[in-house]
Amino acid sequence: MRKHDLVKRVLAAGMMMTLGASLLTGCSAEDEIKDFSSYAKDVEDITLSDEVRVVALGEATHGNKEFQELKLDVFVHLVETTDVRAFAIEGDFGSCMIANDYIVHDIGTAENAVKNLGFEIYRTDEMLELVQWMHDYNQGAKEDDKVRFYGFDMQRNEAARERIQSFYDVVAKEKGTDYAKRWNEGYGTGDGSLSSESVTALKELVEEMIADMESQRDVYIKMTDEETYAYALQSATCLLQHLGLHDASSGYQSYADLRDQYMAENVKWILDREENVYGTRLMIAGHNGHVARVVNSAYTNMGSYLAEEFGESYYVIGTDFYKTNCSIATKEAREDYKFCSDDPIAKIVGDMENNQYYLDFDEAQKSEELSALLDSNMPTGSLGESYSFLMKFVKTSYQLRIPPSQLYDGMIFVYEATPIEVWDYQ
């Protein structure tokens, strides 16, 4: 074969690969779904049965404004129409307590609360609006009608440690000083490279803190109050969970499984507190992959634990996009990337008046067309906080092919999603 013929064949192959890539990453055409407009609703039409104890709102991506705005829209609607009075997010408990201090006790500012939420994805105008609304609502609410803000993650530890330290500064300063010294000696720089011996020693230290708090419960509550005590004890629990993640095997799956198990435990703690202390219900928000009733057989996600525990009392609203320009973290900065989910229902939204609509699956089951679609392996989008070059060429790297009816009780479909703008990305 002559050299120039070989070059021509290589170029031709490259063109075919490029064409194939465009087919994979472009939006595919779908037949029109005739029944959707008859069942499409607005967020304000979401209803909960009396048996629902936890309502979960998923997000198909972390990097789109529309899914952050839905947190506020859905929560406001539930506060106005039900006895939901608590909001919990996929953020670390200690950091979210800073937001709760502002929302409930008017300590600090909304801007400072949002800057301290832990994960960069929440440092946005949309989350500021949510925190500010909750604060302003409480300013005019009766004591037994106030709303509260929680986090159910444990990947970061600094804010939890600071809350424990502040607690001990009041109830037992010498103990607190000793605990802080031992923690700093054991944790070192906190760069994630803790030895197994250090993890073991630190876990023993936190277990000692928890045992002390529990044994001195009545004394410590008398010196502070029940809320302060409860949040300090839960901060210590999350600190122990954080160390458990350090102690997990190096494989990602083990870390992911353990994290979701811990998050489910924390949601149960929050719900228990809401029901028994305040007599109210709970809304949680996190990625679809965490809140869905099931993800796959190889991974036990948070929603699987909650669905098993609460059954029909766990109500899940998933979300999806048809087209997205999504903000995703890279090593140096955040960048916007375009994707198409090929979700046939989200595509239909593009022909309707609004950019998003809610579909209740129980009602949709009355339609043979929608029922068959929701029970099928129709494609939906799923983007996290990492980008791979492979995603430009292989749609299965960011698509799910699981029947939505197995994952959720309803979905909010967004035709076109736009990127968040993080205040100060680090």
Question: What amount of the residues lies in strands?
Answer: 15-25%
Percent of residues in helices: 40-55%
Q: Quickly count the helices.
A: 18
Q: Which structural category fits the helices and strands?
A: alpha/beta
Reading the helices and strands in chain order gives HHEHEHHHEHHHHHHEHHEEHEHHEEHE
Number of strands: 10
Unreliably modeled segments: 1-23
Rg measurement, Å: 24 Å
Ends distance = 53 Å
How is the main sheet built? 8 strands, mixed
Mean pLDDT: 90
Shape descriptor? globular
Verbal overview:
- The chain has 426 residues and is α/β, with parallel strands linked by helices.
- It has a domain at 78-281.
- It contains 18 helices and ten strands.
- It has helices at residues 3-25, 36-39, 65-81, 93-105, 110-115, 125-139, 158-171, 173-187, 196-215, 217-223, 226-247, 252-278, 288-291, 302-310, 344-349, 361-364, 368-374, 404-407, and strands spanning 54-59, 84-92, 148-153, 281-287, 314-329, 334-340, 356-360, 380-381, 399-400, 410-417.
- It is globular and about 70 Å long.
- It starts with a helix and ends in a 9-residue tail after the last strand.
Question: Helix and strand layout, with pairings?
Answer:
Elements: H1 3-25, H2 36-39, E1 54-59, H3 65-81, E2 84-92, H4 93-105, H5 110-115, H6 125-139, E3 148-153, H7 158-171, H8 173-187, H9 196-215, H10 217-223, H11 226-247, H12 252-278, E4 281-287, H13 288-291, H14 302-310, E5 314-329, E6 334-340, H15 344-349, E7 356-360, H16 361-364, H17 368-374, E8 380-381, E9 399-400, H18 404-407, E10 410-417
Parallel strand pairs: 1-4, 1-5, 2-3, 2-4, 5-10
Antiparallel strand pairs: 5-6, 7-10, 8-9
